[in-house]
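User: Design a sequence. Structure:
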């Protein structure tokens, strides 16, 4: 079996397990992830703005 497929499958099973057993915690983790992406995009935007000036 391909290692990549095995790891992907294991992560999928783990994610489903967490979502089913602890939905509130899973939602908090997703929220934190999206907040991090939003902060990174904002930082990149500020960097580009300063480069243009």
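Assistant: Done.
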């Amino acid at each position: 079996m391909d290692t990549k497929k095995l790891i992907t499958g294991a992560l999928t099973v783990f994610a489903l397990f967490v979502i089913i057993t602890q939905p509130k915690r899973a939602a908090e983790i997703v929220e934190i992830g999206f907040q991090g992406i939003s902060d990174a995009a904002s930082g990149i935007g500020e960097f580009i703005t300063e480069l243009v000036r």
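The two ends are 53 Å apart (CA to CA). Helices lie at 3-21, 23-52.
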